[in-house]
Amino acid sequence: MNKFRIGHLTDIDEKGARTFLIQDTEIAVFKLSDGSLHAVENRCPHKGGKLSEGMVCGTAVHCPLHDWKIDLRNGKVHEPDEGCLNTYKTEVDGNSGEIFITIAG
Amino acid sequence: MSTTKKLVLVGNGMAGIRTIEHILKLAPHAYEITVFGAEPHPNYNRIMLSSVLAGGTSIEDIVINEWSWYEDNGIRVYPGDPVVQIDPKRKEVVSQNGVRATYDELIMATGSQAFILPLPGANKEGVIGFRDIKDCETMMAASQKYRKAAVIGGGLLGLEAARGLLNLGMDVTVIHINGHLMDRNLDLPAGLMLQRELEEQGMKFLLNKHTEEITGKHRVKALRFTDQTVLEADLVVMAVGIRPQIELARNTGLDVNRGVIVDDYMHTSIPGISAVGECAEHRGIAYGLVAPLYEQGMVLAKRLAGAATEGYAGSVTSTKLKVSGVDVFSAGQFKDAADTRSIRIQDDVDGVYKKMVIKDGQLIGAVLFGDTTDGASLFSLIKSGENISGREKEILLGVPSGGSGSGPSVAERMASMPDDEIVCGCNGVTKASIGDAVLNKGCNTLGAIKSCTKASASCGGCKPIIENLLTYYAGDNVGEQTKEGICGCTSYDRDEIVAQIKEMGLKSVKEVMNVLGWNEPEGCSKCRPSLNYYLGMIWPAEYRDERVSKFTNERYHANIQKDGTYSVIPRIYGGVTSPAELIKIATVAEKYDVPMVKFTGGQRLDLLGVQKENLPKIWEELDMPSGFGYGKALRTVKTCVGNTFCRFGTQDSIEMGIRLEKKLDKMVAPAKVKLAVSGCPRNCAEATIKDLGVVAIDGAWEIHVGGNAGVKVRTAELLCTVKTDAEVEEWTYSYLQYYRENAKWNERTAAWIERVGLDHVKEALADRDVRLALIERLEVTLGHTVDPWKEIIEDEKLRKNFTPLSGAEPVTH
Fold it and tell me: Whole-prediction pTM value?
């Protein structure tokens, strides 16, 4: 397991996302309205759309290419579509606001 | 030893699979079932092929039984592999691919095929029937390459094919041997009314014409008729009738005539073999409509499942034509004879025609045109054979709905309807299934019945009967028909939402959702952008556009491409650029390695394949306004050369186009808006297929609205003709603001005009004071918009979102 420091809470807007690259995988980290962070692989299982560009509604993001809806908490695709994508554990340092991501390595 | 018998179904279509569905219900484990089908698709609804052609319905939408249904029910299916041989002695079938299957019971359900007239040249490329998905695909592909289509046959099928081809943008001529259309279903007056209606839709007709030859080298080029006239055509659809597919049955030694001969229990002449559907001939009739085939399927299923059945006694059939905007219904014997009397209403003003044919006091046939609401009730009167003496006029002018009339009340009629009567012909739903859905499955609205049984889910013609049955079964428990809201998050429609926002002074997306009780706390990708639009339209001065409720293209002011890169389209007003501007664009494109520079259809330059992080830099260096070429907003104003250079130009279309675009360049709208200005009636800017098109005529300007050249081609309609440039602006701005204030989000002007009608819009804009007030509101809106490119360039908070987070650092413990 490898832990990475990827940025600061203020780097990400509410209902927004930022991306970063680790080991050739592009990961998108989202901030929901409740302030929680969720990191997922930035690749829609349908046609590889960049989810970081999608609209965040509640705990889901809508892929900008064909409107697939993905649950950011577990990477599951909402019905009627099917599929799943990788999610990554995120932690925030309460004092400094630094964001950490854990990648299975 | 298993006691299950083997059942083989030859033909994977509607009648055969319907039979299987009933067998599974009546005797779930009685048979081990194997299905062979010639087509590569699962069982689909052939009746809906017209809707696929007409657009708006996909092939996936018309599948009745998904592959998973076969799997879930343990049915072995061989799609795309027809049975080529049946050995009734060994009780075995062999398929084209050599699959062998033995049977205890075999069902022939091979359907029928389009009858292709044996004309010289009928085998040329581009000559097809209209029968299956493949034919639909052929038509769609042909419409991409060719323009002229001919449909041979002016019956129900031919007209539906023709309507589909019109929708695909082809020029369509229907050739019919008779003097009026649908002569098998309609009498002369109704046939003529139908023709008039379809001619208005753009269909052309050649009546009393007999085709003699199809000419062309490899592909069809033209049709030659017996009178030696010629019609050019690149696609010929034969819709002169269908023929039961009986070759396999004949080779097997079954008795055949027009179809495979069956008795009232669907037995053929060989024990162990039954036939059902379009391939079967019962008492001399081979049916080609779905309702009788489902009735046959029910009888056969009962027999094979060992349930009691009284057999099949033939069907009275009814026909509905489902082409856009024309309602035609016909049932039973509609032609007059010596021993019949008829009663009719013909109203050419409203385009309504109704006729009932009566014999010995019984209704034996009916034709309805223009208003088919009574079709279902007339049809049940024909089928019940009850005596209607003395009530004829009352029935024709509308069946009384209460019990006070002299006829039976609705409830009485519903009660007397037999349980196994099919009330929805498209999906073969019986009265009993509706009863079951209401009484045992908790359905108390039409919508619930629809999703539970599929009744009224296809053509919708049976809706009145289903509603009556719902009332009959549910009594006082009929639920509120849940309205379709703007999305799944709410049951409010657009007008209700807009009214509530104004009434209660709601000022943010979140507030609207909270106050109006959204069932998804943060909405979805449909309602969020629409609420954002409505709020901005209603409160132009105070509402702050909510970036997170906008689609990517409108957040990043560039068009997202399939690989996550973007395209940038700087504004080039009226399509007129300059050497300096071109050098600037070229320099930027080179500096940032833009993979492609392309002219758009709207006379602009598109820089494609831009990396997101380069967007702000590119905008900065271009220093041109955003093209809004990506959002629900004014896209481009296309112009012709006009009298600046053109020898035909009567007006300065370039100047007018630039003027309109400069005024409206930041206007957001319910959907994208495209304009064009042509300097003379030659209309080189193609203004009559734009949301708003201005065409110069000598000494005046015409303003055309509601055109579209995209998904569904629609010619714009003339809103008005005006004398001065100032009037062009006045009408353009007020019309667009009226659209902004009244259309649904994501509703293009063409769809909006179709919905509300041009006359309504003309009336709304008739008063000059109203027009000026609309313009004033538009000015306020435009006054509050900023150039989004500039805003992002100058604001670091917004700009950060264009770049990835810089370098993740490993944490060492």
Answer: 0.53
C-alpha dihedral, B392 to B393 to B397 to B398, nearest 10°:
-40
Most B CBs within 10 A among A4, A5, A14, A53, hence the mutation to make, goes to: A53
Q: Which residues of A touch B801 (CB under 8 A)?
A: 13, 16, 18
Beta-carbon separation of B805 and A14 below 8 A: no
Closest-CA distance, B659 to chain A, in angstroms, reads 34
CB contact under 8 A, B808 and A16: no
The alpha carbon of residue B75 and the mean position of all alpha carbons in its chain are separated, in whole angstroms, by 32
Beta-carbon contacts of residue B476 (< 8 Å; ≥ 6 apart): none
Rounded Cα distance between B275 and B261, Å, is 8
B638: which strand partners?
B676
Amino acid at B510: K
Q: Do B809 and A5 touch (CB under 8 A)?
A: yes
- pLDDT-based confidence at residue B373 (cuts at 50, 70, 90): confident
Distance from C-alpha of B368 to C-alpha of B363, rounded to nearest angstrom: 14
- Pairwise CA distance, residues A4 & B735, whole Å: 56
Tell if the CB–CB gap between A13 and B801 is shorter than 8 Å: yes
Q: Residue B560 pairs with which residues in a beta bridge?
A: B566
pLDDT above 50 for B402: no
Interchain contact, B552 vs A57, CB within 8 Å = no
Chain A residues touching B808 at Cβ < 8 A: 4-6, 20-22, 101
What are phi and psi for residue B408, nearest 5 degrees? Answer: -70, 150
Measured distance CA(B795)–CA(B784) in Å, rounded: 18
Test mutation, B547, B795, B801, chain A, max A CBs within 10 A: B801
pLDDT digits 0-9 by tens, A32-42: 998 899 999 99
Determine the 3-state secondary structure of B26 from DSSP: helix
The percentage of residues in chain B with a pLDDT greater than 90, rounded to a whole number, is 59
* Cβ-defined contact of A11 to B805 (cutoff 8 Å): yes
**Contacting residues for B186 by C-beta, under 8 A, at least 6 apart:** B180, B194, B328, B330, B334, B367, B369
Do A64 and B551 make contact, defined as CB atoms within 8 angstroms?
yes
Q: pLDDT class for B403, splitting at 50, 70, 90?
A: very low
* Contact: A58, B521; criterion CB under 8 Å: yes
Cα distance between residue B224 and residue B436, in whole Å: 56
Put simply, the answer to whether A18 touches B808 (Cβ < 8 Å) is no
Classify the phi-psi angles of B31: left when phi > 0, otherwise alpha if psi is within -120 to 50, otherwise beta: beta
Check pLDDT > 70 for residue B483: no
Contacting residues of A for B525, CB less than 8 Å apart? 54-55, 57, 62, 67, 69
- Nearest Cα neighbor of B425 from B299, B246, B289 is B289
Structure token digits, residue B247: 């070759």
Tally the C-alpha atoms within 13 A of residue B329's C-alpha that lie toward its C-beta. 22
Q: What is the average per-residue pLDDT within B168-184? A: 93
Tell if the CB–CB gap between B525 and A11 is shorter than 8 Å: no
Which amino acid, residue A16? G
pLDDT at B404: 42
Cα–Cα distance between B374 and B377 in angstroms, integer? Answer: 5
User: Would you say residue B407 has pLDDT above 70?
Assistant: no
- Asked whether B353 and B190 are in contact (CB, 8 A), the reply is yes
Chain A: closest CA distance from residue B806 (Å)? 7
Q: How far apart are CA B17 and CA B300, in angstroms?
A: 12
- The owner of tokens 């908790």 is B442
Distance from CA of A94 to the nearest CA of B (A): 17
> How many Cβ contacts (< 8 angstroms) between chains A and B?
86
Q: Please give the radius of gyration of chain A, using alpha carbons only, rounded to the nearest integer.
A: 13
Give the closest-approach CA distance of B167 to chain A in angstroms. Answer: 25
Of B508, B511, B516, nearest in space to B491 by CA: B516
